[in-house]
Amino acid sequence: MKKVALVGASAGLAALVALGFSQQAVLAQTSTAATSQPAMSSNVNRAEIEAIIKDYLIKNPEVLLEAQAALTAKQEATQQQAQGQIISQNSDKLFNSPADAVFGNPKGDVTVVEFFDYNCGYCKRALPDMDALLKSDKNLRFVMKEFPILGADSTRAHIVAKAFKALMPEKYLEFHRDLLGRDGRATEDSAMQIAIKLGGNEKQIREKMKSPEIAQAFQQNYDLANSLNINGTPSYIIGNEVVPGALGADALAEKISHIRNK
């Protein structure tokens, strides 16, 4: 936070210095055009302007905080607008990709997209939030974007998950809850154990794991995440907004309600 304040102070000082020179130029032009008026800025030099600005900022330091807050708000608004355009341009890939699992109401009026990793602790904490929302809101659609970013174990576990989903889509929700909800690290072995327990055929699953469609699905999710500046899990897309972090069921429900009331 200290570094941000110093950067903001430097930026604010530079801006005020620039403003000071602009005023000086205007005053000089006014003085030349109207010789009957005293040349108010003819003797003002850079050192004097900087001294005035420094004195003002020392006496009114809150100006720097206000400027920094305004800059942050502007940057966030610009980023949100850019993300909204990317979401609109990639609507089908984000909301309707056949490679993704859909939980809840397939024809729901609001869709929540979640980028997740089976080894993400925050994703594990967010699992009950999804279950609570799906239980209380029968018109909600959840799209699960598998986004393994936490090492080789995650990648292999997600490959098993993709293969299992392709072979037994009706059992994938149960598989998902079991693998994400259990303690310990998700691996290829732990994912395979769950798949077999749910009736999967290991030989068929391992053969399906070689499918190029699985690699293509992961690549598409990585590309989408990169274009939206998503670099952590869980990250949600609700409407035209990227919502990072495990916010909790109540906060997610509020955003869903906002979409419905637009």
How would you briefly describe this protein structure?
The protein has helices at residues 2-33, 46-59, 62-89, 91-95, 121-136, 152-167, 172-181, 188-197, 202-208, 212-227, 249-260, and strands at 101-104, 110-116, 140-146, 235-238, 241-244. With 262 residues, the chain is of the alpha+beta class. It is elongated, with a radius of gyration of 28 Å.
Radius of gyration: 28 Å
Strand order of the largest sheet: 1-3-2-4-5
Globally, the shape reads elongated
Largest sheet: 5 strands, mixed
Bin the helical content.
Answer: 55-70%
Tell me the fraction of residues in β-strands, as a range: 5-15%
Distance between the termini: 36 Å
Mean pLDDT: 84
Number of strands: 5
- Total helices: the number is 11
Name the structural class: alpha+beta
The residue ranges in which pLDDT falls below 50 over 5 or more consecutive positions are 1-40
Query: What string gives the helices and strands in order?
Result: HHHHEEHEHHHHHEEH
